[in-house]
Write a structure and sequence with these properties.
The complex is a heterotrimer of chains A (660), B (303) and C (215). By secondary structure, chain A is mainly alpha-helical. Chain A is 72% helix and 6% strand. Chain A is built from 27 helices and seven strands. Chain C has a two-stranded antiparallel sheet. In chain C, a hairpin with a 2-residue loop joins strand 1 and strand 2. The chains are: A mainly alpha (660), B mainly alpha (303), C mainly alpha (215).
Chain lengths: 660, 303, 215
Amino acid sequence: MINLFVVGISAVLLGAALQLTLPKKASLKLNYLSTAFGSLLVLTSSFLMLLKGYSNTFSFFSPIPLLKVSFHFDSLSEFFTFVISLVALSSAIYSVGYVEELVEEKKNVKLFNLLYSFFFVSMILVVTAWNGFYFLIVWELMSVLSYMMVSFDYKNRENEFAGYLYILMTHLGTAFIVISFVLLFLKAGTFDFNSFEKLSLSPQYALIVALCALIGFGMKAGIVPFHIWLPYAHPVAPSNVSALMSGVMIKTAIYMLLRFYFSFLPNLGINFGIFILTLGTLSALIGITYSFMQKDLKRLLAYSSIENIGIIFMGLGLTIIFNATGHQTLRDFTLVGVLFHTVNHASFKGLLFLASGAVLKSCHTKNIEKLGGLIKKMPTTALLFLIGSMAICALPPFNGFMSEWIVYQSLLSTFKLNNETVRLLSPLFAAALAVTGGLALATFVKAFGISFLGNPRSKHSENAEEVDTFMKTGMWILALTCIIFGIFPGLIFKLTEGFTGYVPTDNLFHLTSLIDGKSSVSNAAVLTALLTVFTISYLLIKADRTVYETWDCGLNEYNPKAQYTATGFSQPIRRIFSLILKPVRRVDVRRKAFKYYTQQMKVEEEVTPIFEKYLYLPTALSITKTADFVRSKIHCGNINAYLFYIALTLIATLIYINVR
Amino acid sequence: MEVLIGIVQLLLIVILAPGVNAVIHKTKCLIRGQKGPSILQPYRDIYKLLNKRSVISDTASWISRFAPYIIFSVSVVAAAFIPVFSSKTLFHFSSDVIGFTYLMALGTLFLTLYGLDQGSAFGGLGSSREVTIAALAEPAMMIAIFTVCIMNGTSSISEIFTKLSVHPLQAFSVSSVFSLLALLMVAIAESARIPVDNPETHLELTMVHEAMILEASGRDLALIELGSLIKQAIFISFIASAIFPISGLLGFIWYLLKVFSIAILIGFIEISNAKLRFFRVPDFLAVAFTLSVISLIVHYLEV
Amino acid sequence: MEVKLAEFFIALAVFFSITIVASNRLFLGIKSYALQSLSIAAATTLIASIENISHLFVSALLMLIVKACIIPLLLFYVTKKLNIQRKIETNVTIFDSVIFCALIVVFSYFLVAKFNLSSRVLGFNVIPLSISVIIIGLFIMVTRRKAITQILGFLTLENGIFMAEIASTHGMPVFVELGIFMDVLIGVIIAGIFVYRMSETFNDIDTEKLTSFKE
């Protein structure tokens, strides 16, 4: 099994190296097919390892002290390897068709291919690293590689800014990660994860480490209020990369948080759990509200990632709560929910990003206002986008529903706890999750309905064409996983058994909650029932139709501009939630000579990103102000002043040494 | 035998659905001093529509072709979750209440997509409003449901029914009254009734549900309308089943009595209220949310 | 059953304080207030009969007469007499206020659970509900702009205090109770006169206008 894994990784690297020697078009095929092949091998090997419960550590000596290149395989890292390679597989097949565009644009395709393959490998290295020092190196590698791909089209100002913001935020996060590792190192003496696991820290110390890890990895995961880079970086990256970034890269942060909270610091208090739960709920709500307001298809998806990370955090918080109160089975059950939602989000968000990439490729725009009627031009992509949308809205019989159901059940189970706060808050958080679900439905009705249904709103969508087979195949893989994990939730239970220790009593189709052992859901049953009723009604009531034009209030010619716009679609919610969205409306009226008849009218509405405006912008401004002060006053260019600084430093050092 | 009971309960809700609507309508007419159409009128309407060919827009895609069937199927399958006089529904083995609400959302998805599919201006308007109302009704419903679940220590609809029907009088509590009131408000919002939406008008300023199905006709319209009627009947049955449920034959008669009383109550509410402006609807749903919060708090206070 | 009915009426009082918040028309708010007083009166009567405290009957009767009839009628009269625009003007939108009130209810429960302020009547803790009514009353006074609505907020607050009083001390002696009711009535009359004066001076009863008194 481990051999298969090594062969897989080598195949990816070999392909990436060999493609450099080939001409552009061929290099592309070689690189992505070898990546696909490699990730397929990694996928298979991690699947087998999970089933067998394989666990092993490989350490290699390095000349640098404290650094030890060690790889570790246990059920958690294998599970994440499984998720990463799943998305990587479909994204790689998809890329064969997708990256052709870069060839046409005369970009440096070979460099891009190289970055892509290395990015995949770096993610695998992150989730298998077993030494803090080494982990930081591969973590940085992953960040830098993704940064390079975000700003690959660096001449575009938007990309430049997004890349800058991303690298800034991610390094801020890394700083906190370093702090948390150093704090652990101070107690353990080495950077080995083994020794971290054996530590027993005082609660306060553990809390500080946990908070540093939360900020550090939360930055990468995109949890509110550290999410601001995500809606910029994910949309501008090429879609195959955004699928990887949004689908799995932000999950590596979840992976490390799971390691921290359940392996290194297993005794976190209940209040920390409540904190994480609250943070998750806020992220979910804020993420989806902003997502609904977007008219850029990919930015909409990026905000929705924040929502889903929020849901994962809710599960994480609940797990910590159950852990702290000693409800072992509930803890295990919720932990399955966390992992389940992780893999689900990877599959449907990956799918949606790939599908939006297909739209982008054939329409050359990701502005929903300019799309429309694509379902007739790109039927397969439309179907796939619909499947992804239904899965992300947590509708049965798809996979999103199963993991959200587990979160709901865990929220409901808290009434058994002996803690007033949790008992009171969890129904409210369930309500927040419900409104999140409702808004997710609204968001994806908008994303799918406005861009794929109706009539084309511009030339862009009129001339759209269906994408090629490679891209379709890539998307189909993820769509099928959405369906399979939805109908066979037991599969995920089986795969996560090693880490969570939860042994389900059900068969593959059925999922029973722990509240009383009687409430259960079964997507298979619902699907069967739906199909039965559908077939019977379809056969009994024959669809016999006449085709005629849409009613347009009796106007002479049909105008596609009469259709609802994306901005209009989300207007009610924008108005109702104006307290947090703070919408700004711009109306531009162009009149004819006679002032009562308007010739043209343009209404634009935008929401204010409150975190950027009220938290980050003031901070950034004060930092630049300080920097300006330093530059103009202290860094004055006068050589005497500089000598004075040196003298001052010298004296200060001498005093310091003397005092010690 | 169990399957038979399940099928009978399912068919009962499906068959009763247009009748419930007729009772609401009849109540309104009687209060207005009109004679009103016969109770059988909705049945005749649907029968007539089912025999008519439908006209479909040339813009419409396969969404419009399948959506009516899907909406209808979702409603029927959801109806199979609801116990009427016995906890042995067709889905009693996995009748989770959260699963049930999300299943209903599947119907909403296709209804709203149907609205957008023909490229008509009205469809988008209806869909936009529908998703807004659905999203805002969700939290009130969820807290009310959670309260009922916490009270009974289970989230399975059949189990709740069983627990309630063993000791109907003792199981009654103040907080359940508030939960049911909240659910009634949600039901009014979800089944597009006054004061949230007026089912009797085609006025573009006010319509929500009608705007989405403006392009539907013939069999498609029949299916969608039947689906919506079943959805309404499901909500009413859900509330009815939570009020002193009794199992058995007596329970069946008691159920009918409850359903028709709720229908008459809704008729009264409709006749004594004006339709709210669309941007007042969130306030209405916020009150429903507060009601459910009160029910939760009262439950914790009672323990 | 009687116990549950009493609980129900107390919870209903909380609900009516929220309908005051949710109402966008003055009459609706005043009606909600009358209904709130009515349900508190009913709850008081029930508590009096269960616990057999005769002077609570007097309180209930006073509640019924003064707060459920006289004061609402007075407010109706003032509103009609002054031709006040019936729309309620708010600083916070109604949707946000109602959601906020739901949070207030949760918060007051939380407060009581944390500080153990329990005082049980009928095996049912009334304190959190009364605290939430008090805070909601304050909230109405803070966020609503018309003088009439501020009176409504004050009256709601007073009802909350009455609930707390019933719960914690089983009502005060009759004379104290009488005094309080008198005070409230006089207070409302004075406030009514104040509103009347205000509308004479400003042609409006928006309390924003009062800022012009500032130097």
